[in-house]
Amino acid sequence: MSIDLHTLSGAYAVDALSPEEADEFDRHLEQCPACRDEVRELRAAAAEMGASEATPAPRALRARVLAAADQTPQLPPKVTPLEAARSRRWLTRVVGAAAAVVLLAAVAFGVHQARSPEENTASPKVAQVFHAGDAKTATLRTPRGTLLVATSQHLDRMAVDTHRLEALPGSKVYQLWTWTARSGKPASAGIVARGVHGRVMTLPRSGTTVAITVEPAGGSKAPTTKPIVRLDPDKV
Amino acid sequence: MSEPGLRLVSAQDPPDIDRLVGQVALGDAEAFARLYDELSSSVFGLARRVVRDPARAEDVAQEVFLEVWRKAARFDRTLGKAKTWVLTIAHRRAVDAVRRSESQRRQDNHVTPEEVSHDEPADSVIKLEEHVAVRTCLETLTDLQLESVRLAYFNGYTYNEVAVLLDKPLPTIKTRMRDGLIRLRDCLEGNR
Prior knowledge:
By secondary structure, chain A is α+β, with helices and mostly antiparallel strands. Chain A contains seven helices and eight strands; from the N terminus they run H-H-H-H-H-H-H-E-E-E-E-E-E-E-E. Chain A is 31% helix and 22% strand. In chain A, the strands form two sheets. Chain A has a four-stranded antiparallel sheet with strand order 1-2-3-6. A four-stranded antiparallel sheet of chain A has the order 5-4-7-8, with no helix packed on it. Chain A is elongated, with a radius of gyration of 23 Å. Chains A and B meet through helix 2, helix 4, helix 5 and helix 7 of A and helix 2, helix 3, helix 4, helix 7 and helix 8 of B.
């Protein structure tokens, strides 16, 4: 690397480059692992300097920040810029779709009703699906709270994270359903077991609708209540 | 268990910032509230130091935490500590805010090198040991290193502007800024 460029690491670490110079240095960093290490260390030192200015924030800020976050969708984990851009578009469409939702899919579901969490250990955990390199995620509003959904083609799984949905009384459970336009008949895709805040299922095939209802404990053979959320690939 | 919501953090242990960010990445609002409690003083204090105006500093701090919320899943812990990540976002946003109103800032707050070399906000309360360590380590920098680093980091000047303010050649400022940060890094590491 040029010596000249390398000495910019300090200015870069404290955001003291012009946007053009910062772009140039960014490109340089992609090819210079040693420079990345140095920038990382200098930033850590600068951050400690910044943290040494700590001042208690005004009390009202906390509630404002938490309320704003509640209204703000999160970005999925991403690796390449291309995938990120594609995923953001997807997320925008999903979140924009009115009452609730829209999902994509593949493959017949193979989830058995009321399978215990222990039996799930062979399949990826909820968090693994959310953290998969190719994960697409959506944050969905439902009448019962917020539902987080992630799909990974690579893992061939879809996961729902229900910990931001209302807790249900012991006599009720959240149950997942899938159906295709052809069959039109919801089949159970499993219940969210008590004490577990999510569920992983095989990625449903394209054209499959996924829905969640509140059912009596143990689950139902067919939905007995109106879905709190429906995920419809055809509306993507 | 790796399901969100099931990981318990002992009330006795200080919360692990990295782990909190991992939980925030899964949409865990409680973890986000704890993260706010852990870092709001640092974020707000830095923002206020850079943008000066407390009301604008609040706006910056809010932007910072929302960015953290949105991008938590993209935080890569192999690239450093979560606290550094959050403060790096805080610094960039604070500097952006300052640069957006640069001409106004210069009118309100004309800075000369003489003023800056003793720049220390009287109302900044530094209690924690780690903050003392930073102060002590900053004292090991040469005057020019310290001024260069501070003008850039706390006043949001580019290194070009710092060179003009301090009336020094550009390459000198560039290297002093880097050398100063390296010295700070080495001193902080030596204190651990």
